[in-house]
Amino acid sequence: MAWFAVGAAAAMLATAGLARPTVALVTNAQRAHLAGMGSIEAIASFTGLPETAPTKDLMIATMVKLQEVKGIRSFSEVWLSSPDSDLYEIEYRQPASTYVFQPNKDVFISQIFNPRFRQFLSVNQSKAKAGIKAGEKISFDNIKGEMLDELVLNMFGEETYYNLQKKLGMLLKLESFLDSNAILCLPITHRGKVAHVFSYVMASAEIRRHFPDHLLNTDKSKPVLITLSGNQQFLNAAPKNLQFVSENLPTLSRLARQSFLTSSRVVMHDANASGSPVFETLPAKYSAYIICGQRNTRSLESINAELTATAARYFALAAVLTLILSLLASLYFTIPIRQLTEAMQKIIREDYSVRLIETHPDEFAISARAFNKMATGLKEGMLLRNFVSESVRDTRTASTEIAEANICQVTVLFSSIKGFAGMQNQLAPEELFAVMQAHLSAAVEIASELGGEIDKMIEDKIMIVFHHVREADTAAVNAAISAAAHIRGRVMATCRHHTAAGINTGEVVSGTMGAASVRLSKTVVGDTVNLAARLASVAADMQHGGIVVSGASVQLATDGRHFQKLPISSVKGKTHSVEAYLA
């Protein structure tokens, strides 16, 4: 505790701005912190009093100032030794809470310390004069000195005895079986000359006065906290006296005495005692305190109840974790299956852009890759269907082999743009293709609507085939005439160009042409197709184009339609007579 008190005091002095390394101490840190109080000038500056103030006032003001800075009293008392006076001391008085300056009446202190102080002052005075009173001897050769030397050696040890003989400024640790104390003796100069010796006394008894007694308690219904101080011969207790502690807290008192003997912490649990109390004693590090505590634990029933509640909580936690793991395991399988199901629904809705994640670390990754490959193929097929006729797709769906040719009844429509050959030299490529695109768009639209199939397109000429469901199918003929009229009207409205169409009905040879692994095209051939093409040429030779229908088609047309017979009986490339009508 002495070293701790010295360090705290030195820190306060340094904080006050009085550090000035002029006094030799045991360590450099002590020298830097304590040298600042080595002169009357520094003390006056620290306290705010003038240098001419009485020494006792300066000392009292120093103690008050140190207490204000630190918040507690750092020193139990301070001694003043002067060349021409006895030893004086400053002592703190309670309950008045004041400092008193008075002569030191302790014979032991006067015989041990004061002669040494006065000898030091005498040596350091600028004028040689006697530093001791008449009849007072400092020599340790006589019986009195030997007795004092032996007493100091026995009580405080060789180190303290040796330090007492050295130069002032050393820290003296005085440890006895009763208490622990420390004394720091500093020479004080005035105007450059040594004038006094101040001795700062730090006692463990002073530390005990600062203990927070309001935290102590002897009521066993609450946690018990008491302190014991002293030794085996002289033992004190707080907040009650030692007799009260021994009678009311016998186990704790016994453990406290054991801590005094072993200087170690003692912990014990008395499970058989009422309340199943736990005891603990802990020796203080910097004082003669033993801090003792006692606290009752709960009953066995309450412990069992808590253990049961804890087990129930762990069981509930395990159940929740099991449920979570089961849910995660189910999600591990159900999520990929749900994703596959949703993707298949999109495929059904002809959304072929859907894809599955292929990073699943099991067989789901294989399924995802297979699905993605299928979706890619379907998307490519959807793009290619624009280039393959519906009849070809139907043929390939029905059989893996190229379908054989057969004879069937159809109505063939040939539609072309009148004067297209001349347009190629008159229109820009973009304009020419715009006319062709308008012609084709109109044909595709009406063919899809009326059940026809675009067989082929050569330049501006489009061939549309309407298959007969039965012999003499009037619906196919009416559809072909309506389609030609629709195409003519749309092209005129869009491009302001006339179209020429030829329609004929009869038997044709139908079949799929091309290599099975490359490109397939279902088409019809025969005299019926050739005549339809010739009738389209006849219409193209007319001033505004038109729709020219063969006699075979007119015979199957609905009675409500009106046709004008054309004055021709033959067409180019045909040897037999031909009947042609303008629709």
Describe, in plain words, how this protein is organized in 3D:
It is a single chain. Helices cover 45% and strands 22% of the residues. Residues 1-34 and 126-141 have low confidence and may be disordered. 26% of the residues are buried. Helix 1 (2-15) crosses helix 2 (28-34), helix 3 (40-47) crosses helix 4 and helix 7 packs across helix 8 (158-165). It contains 19 helices and 19 strands. The longest helix is centred in the middle third of the chain and has 49 residues, at 300-348. It has 4 domains: 2-207, no CATH class; 212-296, 2-Layer Sandwich (Beta-Lactamase); 302-387, no CATH class; 402-582, Alpha-Beta Plaits (2-Layer Sandwich), CATH 3.30.70.1230. The strands form 3 sheets. Strands 12, 13, 14, 15, 16, 17, 18 and 19 form an 8-stranded mixed β-sheet that branches. Strands 3-2-1-6-5-4 form a 6-stranded antiparallel β-sheet, sandwiched between helices. The chain is α+β, with helices and mostly antiparallel strands and 583 residues long. It is rod-shaped, with a radius of gyration of 62 Å. It has helices spanning 2-15, 28-34, 40-47, 55-70, 107-112, 114-124, 143-156, 158-165, 204-208, 242-248, 250-262, 300-348, 363-384, 390-398, 420-426, 429-450, 474-495, 527-540, 551-556, and strands spanning 77-81, 88-93, 98-103, 171-175, 180-190, 193-203, 224-230, 235-238, 266-269, 277-283, 289-296, 406-417, 453-458, 461-467, 499-514, 520-525, 546-550, 564-565, 580-582.
